[in-house]
Specification:
49% helix; 11 helices; alpha/beta; DapA-like; lyase; 258 residues; schiff base; Schiff_base-form_aldolases_AS; (R,S)-4-hydroxy-2-oxoglutarate aldolase activity; 7-stranded parallel β-sheet; TIM Barrel
Length: 258
């Protein structure tokens, strides 16, 4: 079991560096030592990423989740990204997990770059949120000789990812429906595919609601609906309207979760 802080659902682009480090430190103190803590440390420049990754390690992270730099995405060729991640991995005191999230960055980490980087001893995996199951399956197939984990980046295609060999998932919906997602993994590991399929189908709409449909405000409100504390978003993100809250509630209810 792993815990991730400062991922996309953690609003990491909206936090100052000192806030990021405080979050890692607080979570590490609250988390049992045997639980793996991943923390987002990706920045736009290689130098800043190296510095923040080192500081994140000092704050207690066991591994770094490093999103692709994307502001100058026209210049982010496969070669540029390989160089970026290689330099980060060489300097990092903790293992690095690649993070490709094209819905947010409008940049997919190229397949050839992933396969090259998978050979680096300090790059241990990828969180792939693109939703291309063919690509996920191919990465699994091409990296079988490496100590490299392929992680699904969304609960919407989690079953499909397990079916093609993914090691696990890092999913926004786990903040709300953590136990059902763990159950889905359990069913897949046991080969109980019919039960897994039925469970996956009930997760698709709620997952879309807290990602593509309503985003971070939807995820935070869903946490509130389930008795957790989602809390307010950081500006410029704003809260859902009353009508949107009812639509969100209806999506979870119609799939048997509320």
């Amino acid at each position: 079991m792993r815990l991730v802080v400062l991922g996309s659902s953690g609003e990491f682009p909206l936090l100052a560096s000192r806030e990021r480090l405080e979050l890692v430190s607080r979570v590490r103190r609250a988390l049992p030592r045997d639980r793996l803590l991943l923390a987002g440390s990706g920045c736009e420049s290689t130098r800043a990423t190296i510095e923040l990754t080192g500081s994140t390690a000092e704050a207690g992270a066991d591994a770094a989740l490093v999103v692709t730099p994307c502001y100058y995405r026209g210049a982010m060729s496969s070669a540029a990204l390989v160089q970026h991640y290689t330099e980060v991995a060489e300097a990092s005191p903790i293992p690095v997990v690649l993070y490709s999230v094209p819905a947010n960055t409008n940049l997919e980490l190229p397949l050839e770059a992933v396969l090259t980087l998978a050979q680096h001893p300090n790059i241990i995996g990828i969180k792939d949120s693109g939703g291309d199951i063919t690509r996920i399956g191919l990465i699994v197939h091409k990296t079988q000789q490496e100590d490299f984990q392929v992680l699904s980046g969304s609960a919407g295609f989690l079953l499909a990812s397990y079916a093609v060999g993914a090691s696990g998932g890092i999913c926004a919906l786990a903040n709300v429906l953590g136990a059902p997602l763990c159950q889905l993994e359990h069913l897949c590991r046991q080969g109980r595919w019919q039960e897994a399929r039925e469970l996956q189908q009930r997760l698709i709409e709620p997952n879309a609601a807290v990602t593509r449909r309503f985003g971070i405000p939807g995820l935070k409100k869903a946490m509130d609906l389930f008795g957790y504390y989602g809390g307010p978003c950081r500006a410029p993100l704003g809260p859902l309207s009353p009508a949107e809250v009812e639509e969100l509630r209806g999506i979870f209810s119609s799939n048997g979760w509320l």
